[in-house]
Amino acid sequence: SENKPSFVLHRSCSHSVYSDCSEVFADGNVASGLYVIRPDGSPTALSVYCDMNNGGGWTVFQRRSDGKESFDRAWVEYKHGFGDIYSPKGEFWLGNEPLHYLTSQGKYDLRIDMEDFDGNERYAEYKNFRVDPEKGASCSHLCLRPYLFPSFHPSFPLSSPEFISLPLIILCHSGNLNGHYYNGPYRAMTDDGVVWYTWHGWWYSIKSVVMMVRAADLESPPTGPGKAAGSGLPQGL
């Protein structure tokens, strides 16, 4: 069964702070929820949502769920992040800069979970995902081959590196996961919905999206009683 999420902010009891959710998971924390991390090079610590399903250790950097949060934002907002990370269904973007520090620590996998308005679920996974620094960036958008799997299908590894340097989640002209939120089929001047073309085409805006990264070399935590999400120093929101 899937781990139930926790929405209490937890801090590490150890002297060192976790660098990502993969370290949180490897340390025996097996419940999904909010944790404090500090990636190498980051000037500040970050509150992040750690998803401990699907092998655990996923750091969530984008969530779309109900359209309450506008993703039509200025560059500086995408750089630093925006939205509501603290609510169970809150929509947010973690930030390009935090993503750069996070994915510069080593090799990371990207997972994208999606659901349509009929309750059908799909996911895609990619290898070697990274976010380039703003200065000297060589790509104007995230470009990923739109491989898609039913929720029960094993992941399909990709060997080529993928990267992002601007806030446009455009999947090689086959998707836009930061698009305008519509309720399924839509009509508009442009095909600007939350789209994954190979699943529902350009004119169907999907209901929910979660994008997350995980260290490629993550190992399962030690066997035995796992730590609950509240095993650190819980603080109210």
UniProtKB/TrEMBL annotation:
Transmembrane segments: none annotated. Signal peptide: none annotated. One of its GO terms (molecular function) is extracellular matrix structural constituent. It is found in: Secreted. It comes from the Eukaryota. GO terms for biological process: adaptive immune response; blood coagulation, common pathway; fibrinolysis; platelet aggregation; positive regulation of heterotypic cell-cell adhesion. It holds the Pfam family Fibrinogen_C. Keywords: Adaptive immunity, Coiled coil, Disulfide bond, Immunity, Secreted, Signal. Residues 12-217 form the Fibrinogen C-terminal domain. InterPro entries: FIB_ANG-like (IPR037579), Fibrinogen-like_C (IPR036056), Fibrinogen_a/b/g_C_1 (IPR014716), Fibrinogen_a/b/g_C_dom (IPR002181). SMART domains: FBG. One of its GO terms (cellular component) is fibrinogen complex. Its main location: secreted. Homodimer. Interacts (via the Fibrinogen C-terminal domain) with LAG3 (via Ig-like domains 1 and 2). Immune suppressive molecule that inhibits antigen-specific T-cell activation by acting as a major ligand of LAG3. Responsible for LAG3 T-cell inhibitory function. Binds LAG3 independently from MHC class II (MHC-II). Secreted by, and promotes growth of, hepatocytes. This is Fibrinogen-like protein 1. It comes from Mola mola (Ocean sunfish).
